[in-house]
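Model: Ready when you are.
Researcher: Fold this.
Model:
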Amino acid sequence: MSVCPCGGLPAGTPFEQCCGPAVRHERWPVTAEALMRSRYTAFATGDDDHLFRTWHPENRPADTASDPRVEWTGLTIVRTEAGGEDDAAGTVEFEANYRGPDGPGVLRENSRFAKRAGRWFYAAPVEDA
């Protein structure tokens, strides 16, 4: 079994026990960080359906498709704030390494997550004050 593209939660967990069930619609992530990891995995595996389903409907763009020219090569969770099973909102700051048409890069974002009908959704990047 290979390690999940997100790096595993806990570290080293195989895809089948980590993000696999979420991406296959078998289990909804129970924390904001778990949802963030499953979304990263969806980008890494090209699972656009999971990206669409996990984007908050109030902020979802018309096109949620991932860019097939981008290879996602690693995820680092910098910090989380709230976003636990009993929370209604939370943030996850992360760095996602990639290789694209213009070479390697790092996407850095502090993302807002919100619960709707008991499920976590990606809302939007946190705006700097």
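Researcher: Now this one.
Model:
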Amino acid sequence: MIRPILIHPDPRLKKPCAPVDQITDEIRELGRDMLETMYHAPGVGLAGPQIGVMLRIITMDCTKDPEAEPRPMVLVNPEIVWKSDDLSTYEEGCLSIPDQYAEVQRPAVVRVRWTDLDGAVQEEEMTGLWATCVQHEIDHLDGKLFIDYLGPLKRQMITRKMEKLKREIAREKA
């Protein structure tokens, strides 16, 4: 089921999320819904709080090559256990901040540990867009947005655009 994505500013996007206690059928269904929502948007990552679910769960698929097999991932309670000193800069965007992009510098390589939907602990080293995406989504779980890495003027400008967008959406629904 495709779920509505919250648009910044929304107080839920600024709150830290609770860990998932156990993998249940509801969590598996949430993971499937999040993947469907992410692909439909379309995006490469989605975090629980972006759909109003305040749990530490993210979905990702950074496969860009149309010839390659998709790699849908659901990461429950993801954590970065190691990060490189080398940095990379990517132009990031966010489904909760539509049509706004900015360059953000993050560690180029990260090692991530999470629980999958079968309850097994996984660990993987990620690079490139995968590393950027997983850090961006884990930030969401901690109540942090990519615009928090920007200067106050640029952040304020983007926030004003989002407030205007939300007013326009509200008017269209009225």
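Researcher: Key takeaway?
Model: The chain has a mean pLDDT of 96.
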